[in-house]
Task: structure prediction
Amino acid sequence: MSTAAPEPAAPASAAEPSLLRQALNVPNMLSLLRLAGVPVFLWLLLGPEEDGWALALLVFSALTDWLDGKLARWLNQMSRLGQLLDPAADRLYILATLIAFLVRGIIPWWVVVPLVLREAVLGVCVLTLRRRGFAPPEVTYLGKGATFVLMYAFPFLLLAQGGSDVAAVARPIGYAFTIWGGVLYVWSGVLYVVQARNALRGAGDD
Result:
């Protein structure tokens, strides 16, 4: 996983298939399916508190996240829409999980605030870049790795609820993944901000 200084974001390209054609390819349909699962996942955690089904949906999301990237490369169906949908689904699952875990008291507010703040700052960066005619910053290996670590942390945190032997084993693993993933997630956000700043600074020099 590289932590080298990020490259400036590139200007958005024009010649691409229509949004409908992009949405109907297999990888993007998987990403859309993941997005549709976010409200269901949130309802399972906060409504009936069906943690088992929520855990199954989270695992399904992680598997389709891995699969859509592989299929995009194997089928040569990489698209601009896919580059937007994939990280959007990741971020929505992370935000939904953080909100639900905070409401249920599974994780404290001081864990949630830096991660949500990171998303708010990146949202401002993306809007600023779009206004200047740039695409969003490219997803880095560090950012993707941080997302994977957090996605591994959440199932363990769910399993850690209660007083069973499984919960006792899952608890330290869940906390370790949460700390590791949280630090990486915030640091990757800093690199995205640097990437956006470099792009805007370069545009200002032209």
User: Anything to note?
Assistant: Residues 1-15 have pLDDT under 50 and may be disordered. The chain has one domain: 19-205.
